[in-house]
Amino acid sequence: MNQQAVRRAAIATFAVFAINGFVFASWAARIPAVTRILELTAGEMGLLLLTIAAGSVIALPLAGSVVAKIGTANTIRVGGFAASFGGLIIALALFQHNVSLTATGLFFFGVGIGLWDVAQNIEGADVERHLGRTIMPQFHAGFSGGALIGALVGAGLSALDVSMSLHLLVIVVGVCLAMVLVPRMFLPETPTSGSRADAAVKTHKGRSAWTEKRTLMVGLVVLGAALTEGAANDWIAKASVDGFGSTEAQGAIMFAVFVASMTLFRFFGGRFIDRFGRVPVLYGSLGSALVGLVIFVLAPNMVLAGVGAVLWGAGAAMGFPMGMSAAADDPARAAARVSVVSTIGYVAFLAGPPLLGFLGDHITIRWALLAIAVAIIASLLTAPAAKPLPASEFESVKH
């Protein structure tokens, strides 16, 4: 394939990852404002946030079939438009101070983000194969960078007292324009995106991807990485404030340290994977996350906790993108397997942090974060499953 077309597709894929992160973080950064507008307690807001998880958990297992039928570009468009529709509902709900309508909007938002996520990972894996080098971590760095920008924009608009409804309306317009234009630069749809891929989603020797041992073990790898990242996104700032008596600004800086470390390692991590291999880098990443988490929780002061945050962020950087690459090793089965692994990962990413919040009500959020260590250890034990598949095991070779 024309390398110029592949590079153009890589830029477009990076862009949709970054937009996805920007959209998600733009919402997350304004959660305190939403809590105030709807007059909710922290526990009630946690329950409301679970509606995003519900939408994504429903959409993610179906995303592979959707990609197989209409392709990655159109699936991303459907996801973007669904998320935008959810954003419009949320904007209206906040204007009316309506909790039930907000939950409805968040559900559609979750559905859209779920479809979008699976499709962008499948496209990223396809681009990675055509380039012949590891680039998936850089795409996820785009998500992290977009999330950081979204959080900063959200914080700035909050400081300027810009209404959440207006904020969401501007984002909806931008996303809809991007969904029309950016996916045009994706790679041409391959034959595996048609009926053969649809069959692959449903069966492999008569079995669903949900029954494949390797796919589920890769899902466990991603589960630990996703919970590690999601918990830090939601709780590292509050854990800093509550656990170390820091100011909210210092807590925000701690979150920025974590995200910056994660983003940096995602940008340059591909080189380590190409040199040392997927599984050794997974061991190093998950080990770093475990050590960093323990240092952060047990640190006697903010400085040492910051060191822990750097190691935590570096470790959280690589697990999710490497899991997506492992799930997509076989192009003919990529849609089904990425859908399964994404579902497992996003359940942890979206549902895990609220559950940690409930645990934190009893033992403080700082100590509750240690529960993540169990998931990280499970990911370490299953890391060998992410070893690249030999070409002889590709479903595409057998057709």
Residues in β-strands, percent: under 5%
The largest sheet is: none
User: CATH superfamily of the largest domain, please?
Assistant: MFS general substrate transporter like domains
Number of helices: 14
Secondary structure tally: strands: 0
Q: What count of domains describes the coordinates?
A: 2
CATH domain class name of the largest domain: Mainly Alpha
* Low-pLDDT residue spans: 191-206
Structure, explained:
- The structure is a single chain.
- 82% of the residues lie in helices and 0% in strands.
- It has 399 residues and is mainly α.
- It has two domains: 1-189, Up-down Bundle (Growth Hormone, Chain: A); 205-399, MFS general substrate transporter like domains (Growth Hormone, Chain: A, Up-down Bundle), CATH 1.20.1250.20.
- Helix 1 packs parallel to helix 5 (136-159) and helix 4 packs across helix 12.
- The longest helix has 55 residues, at 42-96.
- Residues 9-387 form the Major facilitator superfamily (MFS) profile domain.
Task: List the defining traits of the structure above.
399 residues, mainly alpha, Growth Hormone, Chain: A, 2 domains, globular
